[in-house]
Design a protein that fits this description.
The chain is α+β, with helices and mostly antiparallel strands and 230 residues long. 41% of the residues lie in helices and 24% in strands. It has nine helices and twelve strands. A five-stranded antiparallel beta sheet has the order 1-2-9-4-7. It has a four-stranded antiparallel beta sheet with strand order 3-8-5-6. The protein has a three-stranded antiparallel beta sheet with strand order 10-12-11. Helix 6 crosses helix 9 and helix 7 crosses helix 8. The radius of gyration is 19 Å and the shape is elongated. 33% of the residues are buried.
Length: 230
């Protein structure tokens, strides 16, 4: 990730997100503003993170890799989401991979700066507890919903979650990526291809070169059933 050397902007973003209220002065001074590009991995499964991240702009995709080598999509995170919070507390390797959907801004602080102070900061502990509780609640729901929703709904939710902010198009989906996406959505390549063709026939989406364009946003939202990955 690229560090943005604009400390006044960093401090303002941190204040706007209330971090000056939960971090002590020494930790607040150690925050860094970072920019992640589209598709950049923030934290990989099996790695030991060295920083706690606060997502302040953009969207993150969280997925896990199964023993058979396939990936399974878990959810998307929007601000103000934490990355590396569980690993900060338990000191273990990351269980999931976190990837930036498009360009994202994060505030990062090294574990070294937090480890000697966070246990004594009741406001920070309360903030962490609320974030972890929300995360566990969401994962608990999605673990069942991910398989109970039809593939059409899962694909619609995925397309909405990866949609470009300024245009009705989603990320590139070429043949190799379609196979990977089928794994992430818990279905087969053939079934997913049939669903894409069906949605295209109904003029809800259309494939243009390597991208998928959304033709009927409201209908896609209806199919997504509340955007289950959010």
């Amino acid at each position: 990730m690229k560090e943005i050397m604009d400390f006044e902007r960093m401090r303002q973003i941190a204040r706007n997100n209330g971090l000056d209220q939960v971090l002590d002065d020494s930790a607040f001074a150690e925050l860094r503003l970072l920019e992640a590009s589209k598709g950049e991995v923030i934290c990989a499964k099996g790695e030991r993170p060295e920083r706690l991240y606060f997502l302040v702009q953009g969207k993150l995709k969280i997925y896990t890799t199964l023993p058979n080598g396939k990936s399974l999509l878990l959810r998307f995170s929007t601000p103000l989401a934490l990355v590396g919070d569980l690993e900060l507390v338990n000191g273990k390797e990351a269980k999931n991979t976190v990837e930036s959907v498009n360009k994202s801004l994060l505030l990062g602080i090294s574990y070294r700066c937090l480890q000697n102070t966070y246990a004594e900061n009741s406001k920070f502990l309360h903030f962490m507890l609320s974030q972890v509780t929300h995360k566990l609640y969401t994962f608990s729901n999605l673990s069942s919903l991910n398989m109970l929703y039809p593939v059409e709904s899962r694909l619609a939710s995925y397309l909405l979650s990866t949609m470009e902010q300024d245009e009705f198009s989603s990320e590139e989906i070429q043949t190799s990526k379609l196979t990977e996406l089928a794994d992430m959505l818990g279905t087969s390549y053939r079934h997913l291809n049939r669903v894409i063709q069906e949605l295209s026939n109904r003029n809800i989406i259309r494939k243009v070169q390597r991208k998928v364009e959304i033709c009927d946003l409201e209908q896609l939202r209806t199919i997504a059933g509340g955007n289950i990955y959010e």
